TrEMBL record:
This is Trafficking protein particle complex subunit 10. Residues 1-271 form the TRAPPC10/Trs130 N-terminal domain. It holds the Pfam family TRAPPC10. It is found in: Golgi apparatus. Keywords: Golgi apparatus, Transport. The gene is TRAPPC10. InterPro entries: Ig_TRAPPC10 (IPR056917), TPC11 (IPR021773), TRAPPC10/Trs130 (IPR045126), TRAPPC10/Trs130_C (IPR022233), TRAPPC10/Trs130_N (IPR056913). It comes from Equus caballus. It comes from the Eukaryota. Residues 753-846 form the TRAPPC10 Ig-like domain. Residues 1159-1185 are annotated as: Disordered. Residues 1163-1174 have a biased composition (Low complexity). PANTHER family: EPILEPSY HOLOPROSENCEPHALY CANDIDATE 1/TMEM1, TRAFFICKING PROTEIN PARTICLE COMPLEX SUBUNIT 10. One of its GO terms (biological process) is Golgi vesicle transport.
Amino acid sequence: MIHLESNFVQFKEELLPKEGNKALLTFPFLHIYWTECCDTEVYKATVKDDLTKWQNVLKAHSSVDWLIVVVENDAKKKNKTNILPRTSIVDKIRNDFCNKQSDRCVVLSDPLKDSSRTQESWNAFLTKLRTLLLMSFTKNLGKFEDDMRTLREKRTEPGWSFCEYFMVQEELAFVFEMLQQFEDALVQYDELDALFSQYVVNFGAGDGANWLTFFCQPVKSWNGLILRKPIDMEKRELIQRQEATLLDLRSYLFSRQCTLLLFLQRPWEVAQRALELLHSCVQELKLLEELVFSDQDYSPHGRAELGFVSVPPGALDCWVFLSCLEVLQRIEGCCDRAQIDSNIAHTVGLWSYATEKLKSLGYLCGLVSEKGPNSEDLNRTVDLLAGLGAERPETANTAQSPYKKLKEALSSVEAFEKHYLDLSHATMEMCTSIGRARSAKLVGKDLAEFYMRKKSPQKAEMYLQGALKNYLAEGWALPITHTRKQLAECQKHLGQIENYLQTSSLLASDRHLTEEERKYFCQEILSFASQQTVSPGHKIVLPMQSFAQLRDLHFTPSTAVVHVGGVLSVEITICSQMPVPVRVEQIAISVHFSIEKNSYRKTAEWLTKHKASNGVIHFPTEPSPFPAAQNSLPALELYEMFERSPSDNSLHTTGIICKNVHMLLRRQESSASLDVPSGVALEDGAHVLKCSSVTLEPGANTITFRTQAKEPGTYTLRQLSASVGPVWFVLPHIYPLVQYDVYSQEPQLHVEPLADSLLAGIPQKVKFTVTTGHYTVKNGDSLQLSNAEAMFILCHAENRAMIYSNTREKASDALLRVQSSDKVTSISLPAAPAYHMIEFELEVLSLPSAPASGGESSVLGVTEPHRKHKDTQKAGHCMATTDHKVSIDCPWSIYSTVIALTFSVPFRTRHSLLSAGTRKYVQVCVQNLSELDFQLSDSKLVDTGDGTDLQLIPLNTKSQQRISSKQSVFFVWELQWTQEPPPSLHCRFSVGFSPAAEERLSISLKPYTYEFQVENFFTLYNVKAEILPPSGAEHCKTGSLCSLEVSITRLSGLLEVDKDEALMESDEYFSTKLMYEVVDNSSNWAVCGKSSGVISMPVAAQATHRVHMEVMPLFAGYLPLPDVRLFKYLPHHSAHSSQLDADSWIENDSLSVDKHVDDQLDSSSVKSRGSVHSAASSEHKGLPMPRLQALPPGQVFNASTGMQILVLPSKDDHVLEVSVT
């Protein structure tokens, strides 16, 4: 809402605006002509001429905003009888002056009467007045703004004056203020402020403006800001006359901004702007202080003048101090105490700035020195007070006005101390209350400096320690250095020797100081160390991190393992932080000795596995003396953030958020100051490594310690110390953990194969390692090995033994003497000192043999008691293994050492019986399971039984054959006999073998043997099956019934194997009961009718039994014939034969026999009609059942195996299915 105030004044021509007029507040926006003429004659005689002159004057001054008001009075009408109606005068005026603007003439009827007609006329008049006034104001205000912009655009032209432009734009600000548009008014002053600031910056950069000369005048008054007047007319007039200084302009500008901000109820912005103003004014004056320039054309006196800014010392401090207090008091005057307390964050900057400027004034006027101000200081104080001038009337009655406070503070030393301490403590309390710990510590440092100047170091130390702790926690390097210098001076005055030496060592290693300063503090330490002021034996212990840093450590030997009596060297690299070489009397490493339970059993090999391979240990670089707290903070977790509109999912906001801000901005916990001695203790132990008289040069230095191991155990390096006179620099804990071990080892013997696995039958190398430990091997010492019957130790003349030190360095070698007898093998050891190793290799040979085959046979010979098969041949490709145990007697022990060597048989062997009618063949398969290739030779198969008429005829063509890794070789023999064959055959297979990679071995190898037994290998029955197509057809067809004829023929008479419970005797011949079964596991045929049955077979040569049945082919193609199986049919009282479970079979005409369950599952879809599986029936369970006994494979020969028959598809099949086998 716009509030417009207007004043009515009498028309005068001199009040009309002239050309170039820039006053907007006194501008005549609307001209009104009043008349109450009712007579035509009078109108023509006087009023018309007067109106004409009035309008001509307005036109001459380009004023088009006017209004004619005709006042009608009824009393005058009654006195004038011959006057025209009232409309005639109004019409004449409108015709004469308002031809195109008839609304510019209004009638006001009887204005003093209280009637509805009068009220209507008044309303019409006021509406017209408001409309015309606002139209005129808007038009003229816009024209004024255009003129102002035009004037501002001419600022680069010569002769342009900032003061003139200032007055023009301030006129606009006054108008906005009159309209109560305080925000718009503030914008005008902000634009003036920014424009002036930019010109000052450009001026400092060399781009000067001539009008700036008027502000470059010596500063003669520094009475601060004036904020208690709405308008400081005194300074405004100085600006208008172009006689104002920079401080005058800035003071006036801010006073106007302050007034408007208070109107807008934004007092805290006043404080913020005030702080910015004070800092910028100080910088602008410093910028203009020494710049000199001339301006002849635009000098107000028409002559060349030199303008420069001259500011007396302390004047700016006075101006800033007064201004800060003035702003604070102005804010306190418009806010209550609760608001002030809750907005301390906005005003604390002014309190701090005022404290800083008061401190500067105290130093300048000699109020802080120990002796007080001198005459020169007093004269300076008088000059500064004179520049303040007289106190302003608006603050004369205020007891605590800024003027009175400053005058009182500069009056005496005691008054200054009181005011300065009050301000400092108040500022620190406010900073602490709002969490600005750094600012509080900074004010505390100023207080410490004040106390140091007042010779009160005990008061200063507390503030310096607090500031230093804060800087150390946050990692501010330069403030740390500066505060430590102040703290060192304070500690020196207080006589705190230990603290002073520690601070000096930190400063001597500080890279932020100059070389001279570092050398000074280093010399302070050396000077104290050279003095004998301390009591004898008294040590001052300081942390080492500022004096020197441990970089790395190197052990020799590198494993950091040494035996008792051995020599160990420790080489450390230490980096001196001092700027000059320092003579160190002694550098020592404190060592902690510990012996664990059973630690004496640890060998050098065990200890070496737990050590660094190169023996070098690097230590982390110390961040001291500046702990970078920023490094310990977690990393920023920044994530993109998108916000979308819920209606159309369009992106309307994006940004970055930090998810761990609570970790980054949390306040640091208070902790003990790092500069306070932390109670570092110097260890005094029995085990110490020392190095005396060492000069540490700046930078890296190498120091070597040597020690001889005496007692076995673990030695931990705990503490590093360096002494310079009575001053000891100590590294309390060496981290990471550094240890070396001293061991006393018992002699040991270790035997291990050189290959992954030892193979039986060929020479294999075994490595013997003798660890002497504390035992010294003498000439004549030997190892006594007991011989195993199935394992031999091979002796070679070229065997040599190698002797190594405990660090695996070769010491010597010697010829190894091996003597073997029937029971003992003696190995003579070469002489070797203690804590050495003797290594040599020997070849061993284990006899090859295969494990027993299925429990039916055993290997030839009797196995030794200490040798046994760990694993027989399993399913898969795992080699069978054999253990050989050997007992060894060592010269250093009265007890024997038993070792076990495991040998793997490289071959796996299996046999099978093959039949071709009555002819029999034995096949032996040898599979190589090892990774080596072998050469096989001299394969033999012999009958170990007592049969003399049996011959084994080999069918193998090659005498030698190569068998590769993971491959197999087959050997075949034909069995021939002249008399009745024996019921069982006992065979032994043997084959010679040797590694294919070796050309010739020095010894002859034993052949590989395999024994097995074959029973019931003679053919008793010949089974033949034949399928015939239907009568009249040439071939079988799918879906049609075909005839299956099975012929079972007995090939021999009564033999010994036939004499069992199934044999039945009659008057004429012997017979036995057999059960046949027709099974088609491939589901190619459907058996129609009975698929099994029991027959009585005569035991006579060429006795034949035929069975006929019908089958139906299910697929087309060459189909294999169904299988025919034979079983012995035993009576139910048979109990000792090897047979199937009685519960699985039923003796009836429709019996179905399925020997293999898997075959039954495969052919379950095609079952014989009428076949019944006995396992599915439960009605006969518990009854005596006949039993079945499978005939051995060698007794039955199936002549139809492998035969196929052609089956054609039927003609009406739409889908052709062909079986391919």
